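Structural prep section.
Before we set up the soaks we want a predicted structure of the protein with 4'-deoxy-4'-aminopyridoxal-5'-phosphate in place, mainly to decide which crystallisation condition to try first. Input record follows.
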Amino acid sequence: MSRISYVNGRYLPHRDALVHVEDRGFQFADAVYEVFAIRRGGLVDEALHLARLARSLVELRIAPPMGEAALKLVLREVVRRNRVANGTLYLQVSRGAAPRDFVFPKAARPTLVVTVRPQRRQDPRLLEEGVGVITIPDIRWGRPDIKTVGLLPNALGKQQARDTGAFEAWQVDRDGRVTEGTSTNAWIVTADGEVVTRQADHSILNGVTRYGLLQLLGGEGLRLAERPFSVAEAKAAREAFLTSTTNFVLPVVSIDGAPVANGHPGTLTLRLRALYDAYVAAQVAAP
Ligand code: PMP
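Run finished without errors. Recording the tokens verbatim:
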């Protein structure tokens, strides 16, 4: 079955889904995006992703390409046409195509692209064995809270991780504190059982998975702190894990090659993963 993608009002065979060479997304990374998990044909946490998209657009003064109700119909239609039950939906909105000039164009219409792809089941070993991370300097611009397509530092960091056999790179600010992964949020459980993740200010992307998990944690009566933690604190942690739309919750068992605690996935981490899986399943359960 052929893959169908949406570009500016048209549902096209994926190979024909193209944007203009002078699109500002291509020329300047003048664009934002969202990534949704698809489970049982439904979008997980759709409202949270759409709210974050709206915020990113406002921050960059890009006009919404269409109203939210119409956008939801487009998202559903792309999922339907691709017959994807479990997968990932990507959505990009750029400021549009216009003659090259840093100054915002007066007349350009925003470009909207929506693509989906099926996702194989997550390799169970990632959960059973956990993953390794390396630490790298955070060289991104000052507003990683805006979900822009300017992802070069993230791509370089992820590649560096994979080149060294690690799954992810945790980016570190000038004060030696972890901001987040290249495509995931970073968490630790301290020796005295406090669950820590960095506060959602301008220094990190406020992950939808992070947000969902924080709500679940509250209900579990766990001790939570939204604050920065240092690399040294992470290395001394009882447990560590990462969260994202495509990975949900994954245990981190080594940092820069040194094991976290005994080097096995933490029990609290696995409990949180189970809680998160149940939260997702409940959202997309057949009525
Ligand atoms: N941080 C960064 C830099 C990311 O790119 C992502 C993935 N979009 C995340 C965190 C995780 O966010 P979410 O849970 O919304 O996927």
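Observations: Residues 267-284 form the longest helix (18 residues).
Flagged for discussion at group meeting.
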